[in-house]
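Input/output pair, single chain:
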Amino acid sequence: MIELLKKTGWLGAFACACLSMNAQIPVTSEGKPVSRIIVATESEPSRQAARLLQDFVERISGASLPILDPGAKDRPNDIIIGESTREAGEDGFLLDTAGKRLRIMTGGDKGAIYGVVTLLEDYLGVAYYAYEAYTLEPNPSITIPEIHHAETPAFRYRQTFSYGNEDPVYKMWFRLEEPGETFIDNMWVHTFDRILPSTRFGQEHPEYYSFINGEHRPGNHSQWCLTNPDLFDAVVTQLDSIFKANPDMRMISVSQNDGNHTNCSCEACRAVDEYEGAPSGNIIRFLNKLAERFPDKEFSTLAYLYSMRPPKHTKPLPNVNIMLCDIDCKREVPLTDNASGQEFVKALKGWSEISDNIFVWDYGINFDNIVSPFPNFHILQKNIQLFKEHHATMHFSQVNGIKGGDFSEMRAYMIGKLMWNPYQDADSLMWRFMEGYYGAAAPHLYQYQKIMQGALLASHQPLWIYDSPISHKDGMLCPQLMKTYNELFDKAERAVADDPLYLDRVRLSRISLMYAELEIARTSNDQDKAAIRQKLDRFHEWTTRYGVKTLNERDNPPEEYYALYKERFLPQSEPNKAAGAKVTWIAPPDDKYKSLGETALTDDLYGGTTYVESWVGWNGVDGAFILDLGEEKTFTSIESDFLHQLGGWVLLPKGGKYSISSDNVNYTAFGSFEFPEDRDPKIKFVKGKASVDQPVKARYIKVEIEALGMCPSWHYGVGYPAWFFMDEVLVR
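Output:
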């Protein structure tokens, strides 16, 4: 028989068929276990991988595979998890069915977990989309085909923010890290004040802190005077204690506090900055000294805002990690394709020439309006490829993926996939997600995204991470397109009307469009207020029903927005007697707000949470102006609207006063107000109000505002002027 097979040429085919059959692994049969899971090495990732596989095999087949401890004697059809392989790097894995066993081998760290995820996803038909949202194909008899499959991720560290991370399976599925898993004591960014608290060292050693505008300025967000030798010794002492308390961890961030233009300008620091051509030179010199002092540790530091550009002469040591941030870049096109992005690309290329250890911190959402439309999906793949091709080994995409955020589930899904492998087709990922997550509504929502993307590009309007939907009301959010978008969402809802799960997902994604409508509506007095009230009520109903907790990175809740919208933007019972009043400047605002202020202060339209529209700003100086009401009017109260937004260096002024006149020559005091210090990071609208018991009559009102001046020691901008912004002046 053998000879016959040889002669006819069938021996090879027969042998291959046998080998192929032998390589297949029956895992379950008719709902009963066949395979056993053997944990080859005692480690938490191997244990997690075993439990994950056991869990999903049972969900698919109904059979629970036993998990055996290291040392158990293996047999055919067993699944062995956790052996090492050289075919994959850190977090990578090898799936191999040789010898009638399935081996899920690890290249290090969590490779075994990610091997299990790939097995479930690519070979067993499981798809995970979002928080506790997945699909699978029930099958009582699972057979694993012949496999020899190795993967290593593009980045050794991958992180993003998403409410999905609260689901432990989701976090494993998308191969995500948490800072606390890698960085000692969760010290991964803005650590100067954690390492050397200003409350402890500032009073006794002000010389440790930045010299700004004539003096050293210790504070919660102060930078260090990096040329001070005593500072270095103090930092070494602090770090030594931290390392001894965390002997099993290697990486720590020693990085500037948040804030721009706050680096030290003492003579010694300035000299280094000038020689190196950038403030990063001081930082890298300091970090190199630490890296030499502790060669067994890895030190991460920021290239962020004032420190983004690389130094001309000093190179980071191999154990110095550069955390490069593209915070100032616009997002309507890839980073290579607009001016702001090209500045970052130039910095990225510069760092990549002197370091192979780069951590890119990317920003992918509107932080001031997280629930506003932000169609940046078309740039994700190209940007992540750019990072990979310029020596980035670690990547964090800060998308603040809250529930109710603009397609936050899809954004987190695509980013998670692309951080693992940037060379997947991004559009295919988008469609795969939509089809699995939205069901029959997918074609309509896909069309929605594509139309908005095209409209954004056609408008030539930048997409900014501190943007307002109002910036796009004549472009991608113009009335004609808003009508189209709503029609598509209506179709999407009808397509899944009989499926409550899909319908809820569609409506959750619609919240961003509803928010944009409400924000744009408040910029015009020519609106159907009853229709706006209906939209506002529905927005409130849906954000409550679906558990939307915040609208911006400052944690302002939808309930607050609902109340303030009714108060500020819907008709008031008493009209404003200053509406349309002429403004004459005494102490005018910053030049870029002067023209706006001539109408915005009295146009009966209030500014929102983003100071890029309606608000009129003064930078560190007092403000004063006169309102001409056009004729004498009777009133009992005057109030002005002020913005509190600490993240934008927008603080409340000290206070202000009002005085009145009938002839614009002789003024009498009307009243005054004062603001207490407010350190709350939430965005607020605060009224500066004065009133009298008996009505007064006047034509002219003088408004005088006393600025705070410099940002206080606890603020990001310590030592620099604080802005104050005001909007509507109400007279009643």
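The longest strand covers residues 684-706. The radius of gyration is 31 Å.
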